[in-house]
Design brief:
heterodimer; B: 70% helix; 3% strand
Chain lengths: 202, 258
């Protein structure tokens, strides 16, 4: 049995200290692309959270039950991206069939997620951290999923904050060549500076 | 098909320029990072020094050229419904090959790029070129397009990397990560007191790209304005000429009448 502190550390470190967008630079495309309105930012975050959790469970199991025993770890990138792509397709069909409301909320973001490096990135990081070697297969899975959840929450937090700032920026007077993405990037840089201050927590 | 035959001659002439055009458009006019904002994740993550940016660019050149060629070769065999998964597998194969090559021959680069080597798979630039160019064009053109676009990407990465490195350490080094036989610093300002470490970190990445983007937009706006002004001047001139002609005509007719 591993202590609950491990989970707490995993969630805080992947949410705040190694924030997926501002510290690890994963998922910057949706961070810039769908952050114009708070509503769409939250929709994207929900879709990412969902897919990230399921994908990290599936790829963990795939890696340690199939790829590792047969000694074919080198095709893990191909295997993972296929898992994610088919998972997204499956989730889309599933949601469409069972919940029209959810489909309306997440539908347009789901196809974008396949090429979202946040998902593949977290999946790869989970494998590289060797949780299964540290804690054993089952507990390692739990830790991996927890840190994936933390990363997704961090993504949602940053998306929400950033989209709120961008909504304000639209009303501000900005020099012409700085309008849109350039000024947003500078704002993101200042946010990253703020997150740098959280470095010493854990 | 019929349309092509009619427009054969001008098309042929255009194509000669076309090859060069395909190769060079990625640098400024259709630069993946500064104009289309594709592949932002590696642009931020691996550009803390110029050399890592260059290394990433070299890998992307290999992957993009290779995947464009293969996608173009199989473009008629793949049904449209499964295009995207098929392309992803092609790209992922090349990325795996390139990852193994760097691990064997450029281990320092492999360590410093880390997770961003497998993440080349989800670089929107590569998928974008596969679907928008290679799946519709000849093999040779696709190869040139892939190479040119990746060169533009490399150029952008090196520009960002050089800016960040010179602010962070006051010098630009070469030979630290790439397996080169020498290790030199290209530029050395030797102003160690003014080094700003923040530029090597994440915040500096965002800010430098933001500033460079604004610069590119400003240049683009300036060019457009200049073009517009030229057009306006041309219209004015034509108007003036027409007015002149009209006046002359009127004078002539007046002279005739008198």
């Amino acid at each position: 049995m591993i202590s609950p502190t491990v989970f707490f550390v995993a969630i805080v470190s992947s949410m705040l200290i190694n924030n997926i967008v501002l510290m690890r630079f994963l998922g910057v495309c949706p961070f810039l692309g769908v952050s114009r309105k708070t509503e769409s930012a939250l929709g994207m975050s929900a879709a990412v959270t969902f897919v990230m959790l399921v994908a990290s469970v599936l790829t963990y199991i795939l890696y340690y039950l199939v790829l590792d025993p047969f000694g074919i770890e080198y095709i893990s990138t191909i295997a993972f991206i296929l898992v994610i792509a088919s998972l997204v397709q499956l989730v889309e069909m599933f949601i469409k069939r069972f919940s029209q409301k959810l489909y309306k909320m997440l539908g347009i973001y789901l196809p974008l997620i396949v090429t979202n490096c946040a998902i593949l990135g977290i999946v790869e990081i989970n494998i590289r951290e060797n949780y299964a070697v540290q804690y054993g297969f089952g507990a390692g899975l739990a830790v991996a999923v927890t840190s994936a959840l933390g990363a997704a929450l961090g993504f949602a937090l940053v998306m929400f904050a950033f989209s709120s700032i961008r909504e304000r920026l639209d009303a501000a007077t900005v020099p012409e060549s700085w309008k849109g993405v350039p000024i947003s990037l500078v704002v993101a840089g200042i946010m990253a500076l703020a997150f740098l201050g959280l470095g010493g927590i854990v | 098909m019929a349309e092509k035959k009619v427009a054969k001659n001008p098309m042929k002439k255009k194509k000669k320029n076309g090859r060069l055009d395909i190769l060079t458009k990625g640098f400024i006019r259709e630069n993946p990072i500064f104009i289309f904002l594709l592949g932002m994740c590696p642009a931020l993550a691996v550009t803390s020094t110029m050399e890592t940016g260059l290394g990433m660019g070299l890998l992307v050149i290999l992957v993009l050229t290779g995947s464009n060629v293969v996608v173009s070769l199989i473009r008629n065999l793949i049904p449209e419904q499964i295009q995207i998964p098929a392309f992803i597998v092609v790209i992922a194969t090349f990325v795996t090959i390139v990852g193994m090559l760097t691990e064997a021959y450029a281990f320092a680069l492999h360590q410093s790029l880390g997770i961003f080597i497998p993440l080349i798979v989800v670089n929107c630039l590569i998928m974008g070129r596969a679907t928008s160019f290679a799946s519709k064009n000849k093999v040779s053109d696709s190869a040139i397009d892939g190479f040119g676009m990746a060169l533009g990407f490399t150029f952008a990465l090196m520009l960002i990397g050089a800016t960040r490195e010179i602010f962070a350490s006051g010098a630009i080094a070469l030979g630290v990560y790439l397996p080169l036989p020498f290790e030199i610093s290209i530029i050395n300002t030797e102003m160690y007191l003014f080094n700003m470490d923040v530029f090597a970190g994440p915040a500096g990445g965002f800010i430098v790209i933001g500033v460079l983007l604004a610069l590119f937009t400003a240049i683009g706006n300036y060019r457009q304005k200049k073009k517009e002004a030229e057009r306006q001047a041309w219209i004015e001139q034509k108007k003036k000429e027409a007015a002149e002609r009209k006046r002359k005509k009127a004078m002539e007719s007046a002279g005739d009448a008198s």
